[in-house]
Amino acid sequence: MSAPTKTKRFIVAIKYAEEETYRSLIASDLSWRTLDIVQGITRRWLVEFLFRTGSSHEGWSQLTKQPGDEGAPQA
Question: How many CB atoms lie within 10 A of CB 10?
Answer without folding.
Answer: 16
